[in-house]
Amino acid sequence: MAIYRVRPHAQSYGHDVGIIMMYCSNPFPPGDVGNAWSYDYPVLYHTVRDVTIEALINKADASSGLSVIAAAKALEAEGVKAITSDCGYMLEYQDEVAGQVGVPVMMSSLLQLPFIASLIGPDMEIGVVCANKPRLTTNLLARAYPHPTRTVRIAGMQDQPGFRHAILDEKGSLDTEQVARETVAVATDLVREFPKIGALLLECSNLPLYSQAVQQAVNLPVFDFLTMIDFVRSACVRKSYDGGY
After folding, report:
1. How deeply is 202 buried, as exposed, middle or buried, from its count of CB atoms within 10 A (0-12, 13-18, 19+)?
2. Domain limits, CATH 3.40.50.1860, in the chain
3. What confidence tens digit (pLDDT) does each residue in 15-48 have?
4. What is the CATH number of domain 17-108+229-236?
5. Which of 24, 130, 204, 236 is catalytic?
6. pTM value?
7. Per-residue pLDDT tens for 90-109?
8. How far is CA 7 from CA 14, 78, 79, 100, in A?
């Protein structure tokens, strides 16, 4: 039997990934970053009450950096191996948080853009489906992809009634079948308009549960928050191998 020692400030143990949550009233079904059933490993959530959809997505107010850093430090003290968030627009806090903790930080699904670019041909493009297109400014996108080698084409979900009702307007209910149809339609229209797109990225943390439907519709690789989290976690918690030879 091993000897276990108390970790200072830890109140629970065994969590692989810490997830910083904004304060909102959205339903989080399986497949959403905010649902623990979306993972095959233990995660730990920490909500930052002064980071809201209205402030971060609708008004582009990123003034809550100190609160986000405090949340990241608390998660690190609990022993998580990596830290992420539940909103791609928390990219605003990426450098601040990464500079204050000693574990890998991935505050936005958009951080996958350089990696995705390396996977597709030099003449191909990347499609991004985001929660609110006006909020995904050139300056914000540059924080994830500062030296672009592929053109990024962006479409937003902000005008889709089911998505807006559930996510942006926080009405308290989510019709996943309707939002699936909307997400597929937005992604399909984007690929139809820009046929050189070779891969898609679903920016919003509420969209991974629709990734399979999108892929079936466009027949392209589809990345999202969960592809990023799973990838980084796999590097932080390596497994042993056995079997036949």
Report:
1. buried
2. 17-108+229-236, 109-224
3. 999 999 999 999 999 999 999 999 999 999 999 9
4. 3.40.50.1860
5. 204
6. 0.95
7. 999 999 999 999 999 999 99
8. 11, 8, 8, 19
For residues 206 and 113, what is the distance between their CA atoms, to the nearest angstrom?
A: 18
Whole-angstrom CA distances from 108 to 20, 38, 83, 95, 136 are 11, 17, 10, 11, 12
Q: Which CATH number among 3.30.470.20, 3.30.2310.20, 3.30.160.40, 3.40.50.1860 corresponds to the domain 109-224?
A: 3.40.50.1860
**24 is a catalytic site residue:** no
Q: List, in sequence order, the alpha helices (H) in the chain.
A: 53, 65-77, 94-98, 113-119, 138-144, 161-163, 176-193, 211-218, 225-236
Residue spans of the chain under pLDDT 70: 58-62
User: What pLDDT is stored for residue 62 in this prediction?
Assistant: 67
From the list 129, 137, 147, the residue with the least C-alpha distance to 206 is 129
Which residue matches tokens 């065994």?
14
Known active-site residue 236 = no
Tokens of 13: 């143990």
